[in-house]
Amino acid sequence: MFRVGCVPFARAPYIYPALVGLAVLLLPPTASAYPPLVPGTGEKVTNAGDDFEDPNWGYIFNNPKNSSELDGQSRLPNGYSQNRRWFEGPMRGHPDVVQRVATPEGGLPGSQGSLLMRSVFTGTPGSPSYHSQQDDFIANVRGAMGRGVPVSWLPSFVVRVYMPPFDEWEKRSGNTFALRAGAHGSRPNGKEKVEEYWPGMWIVFHSKSDRRYKEDAAYFLLRAGPSGRDFKGPDIKQTGWWTLGMSFTADGQVHYFAKPGIDDLTAADHLSSQFPYGFTATQFDTFFFDLISADDGRTWSTSWIVDDPAFYLVHRPKMATNSAPKRRNKR
Known about the structure:
By secondary structure, this protein is mainly β. The chain has helices at about 70, 140-145; strands at about 45, 60, 80, 85, 95-100, 115-120, 135-140, 150, 155-165, 175-185, 195, 200-205, 215-225, 230-235, 240-250, 255-260, 270-275, 280-295, 305-315. The longest helix is centred in the middle third of the chain and has 5 residues, at about 140-145.
């Protein structure tokens, strides 16, 4: 995937209202003295994330794209957005379509632009694998901050995701989209080695074109429990706009949130809190989207549209880069 450096941090106390989440999962929430942090709490970092309101928003593809995870070919230079807020990772390529579009009906008030992502070759460019593969689209949070973010600063991120009607999804059962984080952490193995890992929230589709299923259906799959196994989250009972978010607390936990609609996340939207793969997070690096397709060279992925992905910090030293005044979300 992508590699970023690690910066040590000192744990620091913090105060925010106690939150009680409603867990909708097969694993119980992990016990902790730190309550779940609602994503969007604190100060919005204005030079991280995007609102896609610039009518001249564009992306420089620099194709053919990367596929070094599959064939060792990085094919530099990487793709990047003209505003330098997004980039193609060195291990997997960007989506084949990255395009600013008009915000679908029911989006955030006043929003004129959102981002469409779609792919047909999600593996090696021009060489289908006939197995599901994925593209990455990565927010340049570390570039905006000039460093990795200690989890003692209480980082979080929020995004609105437009889910089209099920009959417009790729006719394939399996993972189709994900919102994920890049982080560093350690596991209690006696060596306290710091490693990179990527927790997240997948959207899984069961297509009625698959003889195993009588009707189209989708649900969230959360990555991951302490053993490293993904586990089922809530069913997706309605399409249209959803609000998703993740947060990190100073105890090294990752917190997952989701709700239908465009309203700000609240404590009631808490899905789970975990130490994924047994890692205790020490540093947050970025967030990113995964786009998955059949990679058969002819079938396009589901069209995914996102709007206003935003990054927040509760604690922030004065030497850090400029941020907006305290508020939850921009609208």
